[in-house]
Amino acid sequence: CTAEYVHGGPGESTNNIHKNGLKCVTILIGAFNRTTGEPVMGVINRPFLDPEDFQHSQQCVWGVSLPDLKCNSRLNTISKTNIICISSSEKDDIKKKLTSHGYTLIEASGAGYKILTVIL
């Protein structure tokens, strides 16, 4: 999403999921066990201000996975919606298969932002 940051535009959105623009920019930080290669913690931060009210619209999600501790910043929720966040470059045959199975597809830029939309 470096291009989204450089261009700095507000971008397009569908169902409050942004296809492009500054709202897609995320910062990803992770740590892993150097011996096993297993992830032990991660943070996704979406840092930009809301241009409408100039208040921080920052979102930050974190998680920890240790042998005796597993926790995260989100409440456990179960969503029954069939929405998948994909890249605009996804192959048409994959898009057709997903929609034929009842999924609604929403396009967005950036791996970190797509992960964040799934979590939220």
SSE order and pairing:
Elements: H1 2-7, E1 13-14, E2 17-18, E3 27-32, E4 39-46, E5 59-66, E6 69-72, E7 83-86, H2 92-100, E8 104-107, H3 111-119
Family: Belongs to the inositol monophosphatase superfamily.
Pfam family, one: Inositol_P
Organism: Diabrotica virgifera virgifera (western corn rootworm)
How many strands appear in the DSSP assignment?
8
Lateral arrangement of strands in the main beta sheet: 3-4-5-6
What would the principal axes of the Cα set say about the shape?
A: globular
What radius of gyration results from the CA coordinates?
16 Å
State the domain count.
Answer: 1
Uncertain spans: none
Our count of helices gives: 3
The end-to-end distance, rounded to whole angstroms, is 19 Å
Structural class: alpha+beta
Overall pLDDT? 77
Order of helices and strands: HEEEEEEEHEH
Strand content: 25-35%
Note the main sheet: 4 strands, antiparallel
Helix content percent band? 10-25%
